[in-house]
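Troubleshooting entry. The earlier prediction with uridine-5'-diphosphate gave an output that would not parse, so I re-checked the input for stray whitespace and re-submitted. Clean input:
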Amino acid sequence: MGEKIVDNNQIVIVGAGLSGLTLAERFATVANKKVLIIEKRDRIGGNCYDFFDKHGVLVSKYGPHIFHTQEKRVYEYVKKFADWEKYEHQVSSFVKGKLVPIPVNIETINLLFGTKINNGEEMRRWLDERRVKGIKIPMNSEEVVLGKLGKKIYELMFRDYTKKQWGISPKELESEVLARIPIRYSFERGYSSNKYQIRPRGGFTKMMEKMIENPNIELRLNTDYYSFADNIPSGSKLFFTGPIDEFISYKSGKLYKLPYRSVKFVFKSFHKKYFQKVGVINYPSIKTKMSRSTEYKYLTGQKHDWTTISREYFSGKGEPLYPLKSFESKKKYEEIAKIVGNLKGIYFLGRLGKYKYINMDQAILEALNLFDELYYGDKKR
Ligand code: UDP
């Protein structure tokens, strides 16, 4: 159990992304505490930031963000800040000149291999003949897919897509990365099978603005933590959601560097209702440089005469969007984690603060749990 925050301490949160804003909202609303949020960018929302482009189309600056959760608690929490509607996200993968469903389902197999599989049992039998045998506990991301889907599907849909996204082979990635993608022994088409699959009308930025509508919260945009740190009153509790390696380097005076993946997004607008057949198309071939193409109107439900897409090109340079979960980075992170363990009065959270490949709902849940631990302590809620 974490220590309890004493009443006079100010709460300082570095980073106005989903993790930081959730925590700010809880401290300001529930604990009635003064919260200062410091954000380097000129806007809130972190990498979930969305906005209306010059044609009035709602787009996401950092690629598709889909909200889905199994956690009732997270659902009940987000409900307060937006008007939500149901949304089942669908993704297709462009393989052998065809658009096929991903996650792999019965239709994917039928389209790619000319089979006439009708039900889950037949699919299981078909896959059983093709799965690589002897992989009880997959030791890396390659084994995850080989053990579930076999070599052919691995090569067609996962191996090169993963190389483009992460810059390394699935063999070098922890199993958790490719374990994110399930298999469907049915014709089910949705990307997620979570209980709550919803989208906020008007977008995520609007929701996040609502979260911090509270006089207890002060937001300082365009403020770099490292230049501002001397102004933070001593005794403040610090919650840091930026890249943890940067912070530890700053604190320790020794350089620590973790690998991240960044994305170059190329946006294009068209004066037509729709451009592509589904919201997201993945391009798993190494011959196509882009990894994915997203048409936002499918994701947001917006009706408009114009439509905007973004094409994604992964890179090791640029703003960190994804922590690279390889065996090599694991060792580097463990070194950092040892130092973190000895720091007092500072908490790390979010994708960059924890160096974890988490989804939006997990970021929210983690912040809610941290708040509960600090505020309620052992007290009954
Ligand atoms: N992936 C793949 N082929 C695909 C989609 C995903 O090989 O068509 C791999 C890729 O390595 C990716 C991982 O599966 O990092 C998880 O995919 P997810 O859709 O969750 O990635 P995100 O939306 O977070 O980029």
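This one parsed fine. The radius of gyration is 22 Å.
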